[in-house]
Amino acid sequence: MSSAVEVLKACFSLLKSSKKLNVSKISEELEMLGFEDASEKQIKIAWLAAQRGNKLSEALHILSETGAKLAVEASVVADKREAVSKKPQNVKKTVTNQPNTKHMPDNAMKEVVEYKTVWADSHWELEKKVNNAINKGWQPLGGMAVHLLIGKTAQYVQTIVKYG
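Above: the chain's sequence. Below: its structure in token form.
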């Protein structure tokens, strides 16, 4: 049986360049090179070592120092891949032409009937003006902005709208 060290030596460049683990692609490469008995676990361990080392000698050192730890990580990688690949059976998806408004605010589907901006010289003054506008039926739209001109004081701006 091939070891993770042999897999790493035979396919380091492929393992290193694979940002996502593709066991079948690496297995094909190993088979072409005569390593027909490499296990999925050995490939995963070699891939993890290759991802951590910048060159083959570093990856081999990492593998020799942390082989047991990499074996545990390889099992975790396998479990995650299995969980992602399992798809729920008999799930029916209903498609409608209506937007999903379940998590939308009440005004999300209403039409804006009036729009304006509120300006102030300080954010405290802007808060007062916006709160007064809210009491009159206006709603803030987006966040506050600060308008800066060279040589001038900052102006604080809030867009507000009324919905119909």
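The mean pLDDT is 80.
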